[in-house]
Write a structure and sequence with these properties.
The protein has about 100 residues and is an all-alpha fold. The chain contains four helices and no strands.
């Protein structure tokens, strides 16, 4: 589920407000995968409904425009997610060997 406006909060693109800290503990060891996914979906849906309306910061747009230019010029390669994960794992593995 995409939630425009929330991504900025997750990536540090928006100023943080001081909110009272609320510690929530879930019985994760006792929850099934389906229960955990349901909890994540409920939180994400709530964030989408209640997130502040805010545009992404300018630097996000600049990065996207640069990537589009590089793709059009043949300087970037589009990978499916499985191939991207494989390459990242390979890079991490190679980095550990040095």
């Amino acid at each position: 589920m995409r939630c425009p406006g929330v991504e900025g909060w997750l990536t540090g693109g928006f100023p943080r407000r001081k909110l009272p800290h609320m510690k929530v503990e879930l019985p994760l060891a006792e929850m099934s995968v389906a229960d955990k996914l349901h909890a994540m979906e409920a939180i994400w849906a709530d964030l989408c409904r209640n997130a502040p309306e805010a545009a992404a910061p300018d630097w996000h747009l600049q990065i996207l425009e640069d990537r589009e230019r590089r793709l059009a010029a043949g300087q970037e390669e589009v990978l499916d997610w499985e191939e991207a994960k494989r390459r990242l794992r390979q890079e991490i593995h190679e980095g550990q060997d040095t």
